[in-house]
Amino acid sequence: MKITSVLVTGGAGFIGANLVRMLLKRDCKVTVFDNFSTGRYAYLEGLPVDIVEGDVLDRDLLIEVIRSHQSIIHLAAQTGVPGSLLDPYHDCEANVVGTLNVLEACRAAAKDSSATKMSQKIVFASSNAPLGRQIPPAAEDKAPLPVSPYGASKLAAEAYCLAYYGSWGLNTIVLRFGNVYGPFSEHKGSVVAEFFKAICNNNVITMHGDGAQTRDFVYVADLCRAVLLALDCNEAGEVFQIATGVETSINRLIEMVRDVSGRDTSIYKAPTRHGDVRKNYSMIVKAREILGWEPEVDLDLGLRKTYEWFVKKT
Ligand SMILES: NC(=O)c1ccc[n+]([C@@H]2O[C@H](COP(=O)([O-])OP(=O)(O)OC[C@H]3O[C@@H](n4cnc5c(N)ncnc54)[C@H](O)[C@@H]3O)[C@@H](O)[C@H]2O)c1
């Protein structure tokens, strides 16, 4: 199926800014729905997209906007562990109630369009955070054991997506993203963005814990291709891990960002953060087999492309 009209909630954020550009290349008609709490107008400057400034907690506005779109990519969220520890209620409202509102708006649209049989595709941006204490590699069939409110809110939102498929046949797909990095991430507090900002601003790199903790870093263009494949596929009510399957320690990442930037920036060792998992990487067999997706950009190349973008920005 060729997708033509796509609503991207959170489309002014990091992943959104990259995804919107890929959707436009496919000649999609794109609407961004964003409250600009962390996203930036500047990331969308000059792009032929409709922008609706709104909050996913505004149910009426969502119902009005969602009904005219064939596909919904739901990225809008409170996006991190630290924010969820500071304000678990906000995290729950934005991530759980916000997602429920998107699903309810899709259910209303499905009722409206029962005559035309238009059935929307809904892709939900989840994370590995729901897996929490599970022993890696993260896999779709392991029981989630979240260790942060963020992990709990993403898990609850995943559950609603699956339940709306089970109860009303909504075409939901849940994608659990690994640690995403790439251009348009200047506002992010993720490790790659923080390290490159520190390097570009001649600051020290802050490393939490001993650096032996591991993550699965996926380049944003690869991730966005997976989202597009999820939009096009005939699957629904399914969860897919989208990462690389490669485990990289923060110590190794620091060596790599120093090499890519040619700068021997010094390190400040800060305490381990609560709610952070020790080891994390994902199995991606299901995405490979069912979505036909494969990550193409290795960490060295992805870091080079990302650093180039940060250098141009400063
Ligand atoms: N970046 C990663 O490594 C990563 C990893 C796993 C999952 N995710 C998920 O991917 C999605 C996008 O993340 P991102 O890294 O692009 O973050 P981001 O903060 O750059 O983007 C989030 C966007 O949502 C908007 N937003 C936030 N709350 C909103 C609300 N209540 N109503 C409307 N808009 C709202 C923000 O303004 C922003 O533009 C999120 O759901 C996040 O949890 C990201």
Topology diagram in text:
Elements (H helix, E strand, L loop, with lengths): L4 E5 L4 H12 L3 E6 L15 E4 L5 H8 L4 E4 L6 H6 L1 H25 L8 E7 L21 H20 L2 E7 L1 E3 L9 H10 L4 E4 L5 E2 L1 E3 H13 L5 E5 L5 E2 H12 L5 E4 L14 H7 L7 H15 L1
Parallel strand pairs: 1-2, 1-4, 2-3, 4-5, 5-6, 6-11, 7-10, 8-13
Antiparallel strand pairs: 9-12
The structure holds nicotinamide-adenine-dinucleotide.
Nicotinamide-adenine-dinucleotide binds next to helix 1, helix 4, strand 5 and strand 7.
Description:
The chain is of the alpha/beta class. The chain has one domain (5-184, 218-245, 281-296): Rossmann fold. Helix content is 41%, strand content 18%. The protein is built from ten helices and 13 strands. It has helices at residues 14-25, 59-66, 81-86, 88-112, 149-168, 191-200, 220-232, 250-261, 285-291, 299-313; strands spanning 5-9, 29-34, 50-53, 71-74, 121-127, 171-177, 179-181, 205-208, 214-215, 217-219, 238-242, 248-249, 267-270. Strands 3-2-1-4-5-6-11 form a seven-stranded parallel β-sheet, with helices on both faces. Helix 1 (14-25) links the parallel strand 1 (5-9) and strand 2. The longest helix is centred in the N-terminal third of the chain and has 25 residues, at 88-112. It is globular, with a radius of gyration of 19 Å. The mean pLDDT is 95. The protein binds nicotinamide-adenine-dinucleotide. Nicotinamide-adenine-dinucleotide is lined by residues 9-10, 12-16, 34-39, 55-57, 75-77, 79, 94, 98, 125, 127, 177, 179-180, 188, 190.
